[in-house]
Amino acid sequence: MGAQSTSTATPLHLFRMTDGLIVHQALSAAAKLGIADLLKDGVRSTTDLAATLEVNDDALYRTLRFLAGQGVFHETAPRMFVNSALSQWLRSDVPGSVRSVLIYRGSPFYFSPFGDLLYSIQTGAPALEKTHGVTGFEYMRRNRDEGDMFDNAMTDVSMLWAPGIVAAYDFGRWGWLMDVAGGNGLLLATILRAHPALRGVLAEQPAVLERARQREFWSPDLTGRVRFEPMDFFEAVPPGCRAYLMKNIIHDWDDERARRILLNCRRAVPDDGVLLLVEYCLGGENTPTVGKTVDVVMLTMTGGKERTVREHRELLTSAGFSLNETVPLFAGCHDSGSETGVRPLLTAAPNRAATVTER
């Protein structure tokens, strides 16, 4: 919802903005129940769906009726539903599905801390730690189901972004590429497929690497071109590559801990190498953007933050890098203050090296 002018603003505008809570949780419930999968072959009644799912018929109907009003599912006759163009993306068997993301976002792990957002505003500390008693990463280490749920959600997000990232930059020029904290490795696998001569390293926590090895996108043609390196990036980043990639890593951390990660990257990146960051960049205008939304998510969940291009430059410089260029993925993000909320790819070279020439 865009900003309202003084002449058109009413109390109802604020009231209606809170409806997002209901939409959010209804979508998550539909995703977890697998409604879209059950409707993939056509129209079914809520009575039939409720019997299959062992849920309350009337409650299911009211929820699907509400979502149909949002364009998610269609009610073709009384209490008869079919998938819509939107709900197709809730199917688990469709490339580009966001089902895992919506399941994750509706889970108590993700959703509950926002009930304590005021705590984050008062203290600057992540509300998640108040809600769950430990950091989010520690909570996932202790609870395998939540860790798997997070991995699945981040893999779905990577599937959405990977084609744009691959198209925006010539990774093949570097010979070896390390994906630092690359999760299940979907992005690295996509890059390797696009550049047959490139070799890669997936550097991650040991438990994450174990799950990554089991993923279906590591086909036999890729396994000979990738290494799996256990890593704690607060201690060290493995050497051995010319290019190092981090997607959505620096935004998880405050400036002090982000600088620590970047300093470890600087020790690993050779003087003729490059560090590649995929992060949101915030502009100066107070307009609704994905980046500003994610910034509040970071405040609440991790204690991290989204940054402007200038803030990224200052952070990188403090760790021994020079920011060379911002490469748009789907739209521009520039120092001018304009903002789309779309993540660019930031290229940074060691200060002691010659400037890397980009296409």
Please name the CATH topology of the largest domain: Rossmann fold
Rg over alpha carbons: 22 Å
Poorly predicted regions: 331-341, 353-359
Mean pLDDT, rounded to whole units? Answer: 90
Strand order of the largest sheet: 6-5-4-7-8-12-11
Termini Cα gap: 37 Å
Shape: globular
Topology order in helix (H) and strand (E) letters: HHHEHHEEHHHHHHEHEHHEEHEEHEHEE
What helical percentage do the residues reach? Answer: 40-55%
CATH superfamily of the largest domain: Vaccinia Virus protein VP39
Number of helices: 17
**What structural class do the secondary elements suggest?**
alpha/beta
Question: How many domain modules?
Answer: 2
Q: What is the CATH class name of the largest domain?
A: Alpha Beta
Descriptive notes:
- This protein is of the alpha/beta class.
- The chain has two domains: 11-93, Winged helix-like DNA-binding domain superfamily/Winged helix DNA-binding domain (Arc Repressor Mutant, subunit A); 128-350, 3-Layer(aba) Sandwich (Rossmann fold).
- The protein is 44% helix and 14% strand.
- The protein contains 17 helices and twelve strands.
- The chain has a seven-stranded mixed β-sheet, with helices on both faces. Strands 1-3-2 form a three-stranded antiparallel β-sheet.
- The radius of gyration is 22 Å and the shape is globular.
- Residues 331-341 and 353-359 have low confidence and may be disordered.
